[in-house]
Amino acid sequence: MRNRLIPGSSGRVRAMTLLGTPVLHTPCEPVTDFGPELSRLVEDMFATMYAANGVGLAANQVGVGLRVFVYDCPDDEDVRHLGHVVNPRLVEADGDVIRGPEGCLSLPGLEAPTPRYDHAVVEGVRVDGSPVRVQGTGFFARCLQHESDHLDGGVYADHVTGWARRRLLRTIGKQPWGSGADVLKV
Q: Phi and psi at residue 94, in whole multiples of 5°?
């Protein structure tokens, strides 16, 4: 028998913020209110992430400009990592740089080879304010860096270079939501 609810089981699915929406490209504000609204946001974010078949989701991807992300992501050894971080800080990103395919729920259906460090550590707190330190390698390290970027107003496409960037920008321009390609960092 389970001792707790499945994350997101009491949440509602929110609309996804797409590339070009200002909240997605603006650094998020720190959380200062740790009340029931924050718990509701985290539940809704899990529900939204699962409904979209994602492995991570930042608050600004559902239109909320606060420093919060959720994740349910495997690492390269297929170990599942499940949780959330409020007011996260990426405190380590090191090791080998791996250029691997990366996508984003805010750029639906697209992916591009994106360089990321093979190891990452994020520190922050949980919804109850207790400290949390999350460490990841491989694909999970990529997820931690990706979600941290979102909270700083960035998207994975900001890291794509060369021919892959040109191809990605062309593909974005062909999408119905693709008018936001001009906000990508150079």
A: -150, -175
Whole-Å CA distances, 64 to 34, 94, 130: 15, 29, 22
Please give the structure tokens belonging to residue 153.
Answer: 């107003």
Is this model's pTM higher than 0.85 or not? yes
166 token code pair: 């040109």
How far apart CA 138 and CA 18 sit, in angstroms, is 26
pLDDT tens string 12-68: 999 999 999 999 999 999 999 999 999 999 999 999 999 999 999 999 999 999 999
Beta bridge partners of 123: 89, 133
- 3-state SS of 9-60 is CCCCCCCCCCCCCHHHHCCCECCCCCCHHHHHHHHHHHHHHHHCCCCEEEHH
- What is the pLDDT at residue 180? 66
Chain CA centroid to CA 106, Å: 9
Rounded distance between C-alpha atoms, residue 12 and residue 50, angstroms: 11
Q: How far apart are the C-alpha atoms of 83 and 139, rounded to whole Å?
A: 15
User: Which pLDDT tens digit goes with each residue over 60-101?
Assistant: 999 999 999 999 999 999 999 999 999 999 999 999 999 999
| Annotation says 147 is catalytic | yes
